[in-house]
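Something for you to look into today, if you have time. Could you write out one complete protein record for me, on any chain you like? The space below this message is yours for that.
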Amino acid sequence: MSYPPPPPSGPAYGNEALYYTRKTSADIEAGQKHKSKPMAYLLWFFLWGFGADRWYVKQWYIAIIPLILWFVIWRSVLGFFGGTEEDDAAAGVAVILLWMASGLYFIVDALFLARSVERYNAKVTNEVRARHGV
């Protein structure tokens, strides 16, 4: 069984050994702050209506969209029904269209979620490496 060689050290490699040490500690710190894709997809599947998957990757400006959709859907369901038959028919069409828009956003959100997690992790890694001077 062979082990990888240790990082170079000694007088000729002093700065290079320091670089490896800083890079390793920066990568460890960044790895602790990374978000996982499976967790993001679990949040997306179970708590999508609250935008939990986007709150998880710190995209609050996108996380508001499902909250607004759900508010409008429930407002239309609870607020429009109870009038005349024509009002009920119009409200039914509005609710169906809102559910379709919500379902479409649900699918689109799933397609872009993995890339959002990758982007967040890359951003965290770059910030930590810059702070460590790597």
Q: What stands out?
A: The radius of gyration is 24 Å.
